[in-house]
Amino acid sequence: MEHAVVRELAALSGRALPLLRGWRAEHGGCGVARALLVLQTSGGMSDTELKDELVVAHRDAQAAGERETSLVYGIFLYTHRQYQMAADHLLAHFAQWPGDEAAALMLGAFHSCGDPDYLERGDVLVEEQYTLAGKDCWRWAGWMAWTRVEQGRIEEAHGLAEHTLGLYPRSGVAAHARAHAEHEQGAGGAAIAFLDEWLAADPQAMQFRHLNWHAALQSLTCGDFADARRRADEVLTRADVGMRAATNWRLLLAGQEPAGRSEPEHVRELLAAPAGMAEVFHTFNLALALACEAATDDLQALARQAAADERPEYRDVLAPVVAALAHVTAGRPLQAVDLLTDLGGQVERLGGVRVEREIVQDTLARALIEAGEPDRAAALLHDRVTTRRHHTYEDLLLTPRTTTGVTARHHHGTVPAH
Predict the structure, then answer these.
(1) Pairwise CA distance, residues 72 & 75, whole Å
(2) CA angle 204, 207, 208 (to 5 degrees)
(3) For residues 11 and 7, what is the distance between their CA atoms, to the nearest angstrom?
(4) CA angle 188, 193, 199 (to 5 degrees)
(5) What is the DSSP annotation of 365-380?
(6) Which of 226, 224, 257, 230 is nearest to 393 (CA)?
(7) What's the confidence (pLDDT) of residue 312?
(8) ∠ at Cα 38 (33, 42), nearest 5°?
(9) In which residue ranges of the chain is pLDDT below 70?
(10) Torsion region of 30: left, alpha or beta (phi above 0 gives left; psi -120 to 50 gives alpha)
(11) Could you give the 3-state DSSP secondary structure of residue 130?
(12) Are 175 and 160 a contacting pair, CB within 8 Å?
């Protein structure tokens, strides 16, 4: 049963959670079943529920064997956001049980560490496991494609994603890796057609909303702003604050009408919640949501809070980024340019992945245009404009306007979120 469940989880299939819940219900004493269900649903659990479930899972796993016990302990670390400890544990786990596909569901721990050294270790681990598993193992081929995307080896990533989909067309990891590669290529309509066809075969797919967000980004690349807004309005939910904000901020930077936005009070509630400042990338997404509402005062307060945080990624990276967003919303592009230019490559410490962090570069490009620095803006986006087949979005970022989309709507009322 574990093999079937892990196969569906690795595929990010809509069948995965029902199958996992059925396994858990039928075998209440199976620690791995209980722990894997926690791994997939921990976002909706309190800390007490999380700990209680995993304590029971670990006890049950001990009766099953060393591998099961190790797997559950890794899940405990991962779901408690102890990412460096989880990454260290995974390295030891794979040394003893190479190719363990259930453990591979936690490979994101290496990226979540926010440490270049751990990121490199994770990449090496995936390459080793892919070599051991062989090129015909679609699960590890998909994870290898994802690794190449994040390394910026886009052509290799696209080739690996295509190879994986040839082996197993329903590989969600490969579909996701292809979406990221085609974003870097500016594939436009071809990418949208693939995503829509892939999703139509499984409307319950675990990443249905996220891949629709990728399709919305492709709509932006080729200037179909109505489609980008439609996907944000009809597919993304009130809970998808980050993806909604990332879509709307891009629309605003390009001088376009946004989709339905988030209520500022909802964003404030999320920031005040325990998880609001738990992970830097999540906090950054909430800052983007505030920027979409031109909530300058809120952004300034958040920048001060981040600057006082003892965690270096908050103090040294998030604080200036949020302060820059505040300057943009207030019509002070020069100050935003100074802050974002000084950051340079440190933006990677915001977390997230390449396409998600790219929005900081977008903001800098638009601020440069508003500050009367078109040559610097063009140089900043040169690689994107020359390598992406569709780049209407980038062209609009570089188009002078009398006012930015953000400041033009500074006093408009909030559009209710769906």
Answers:
(1) 5
(2) 50
(3) 6
(4) 125
(5) HHHHHHTT-HHHHHHH
(6) 224
(7) 94
(8) 170
(9) 402-418
(10) beta
(11) helix
(12) no
In residues, how long is the chain? 418
Q: Using an 8 Å Cβ cutoff, are 408 and 206 in contact? A: no
Structure tokens at 392: 């209407």
Q: What are phi and psi of 27, to 5 degrees?
A: -125, 75
Residue partners of 185: CB distance under 8 A and separation at least 6: 154, 158, 387, 388, 389
334 to 366, 370, 413: CA distances (angstroms): 11, 8, 27
Element holding 236 (H helix, E strand) = none
pTM for the model stands at 0.92
| CA atoms of 17 and 11, how far apart (whole Å) | 12
Give me the pLDDT at residue 409, please: 46
Determine contact, residues 406/328, Cβ cutoff 8 Å: yes
Cα gap 350→327, rounded to integer Å:
19
Distances (CA, A) of 144 to 125, 164, 286: 10, 10, 31
The C-alpha atoms of residue 146 and residue 6 are separated, in whole angstroms, by: 18
Residue 25 phi/psi, 5-degree rounding, is -70, -35
Tokens of 59: 């006890």
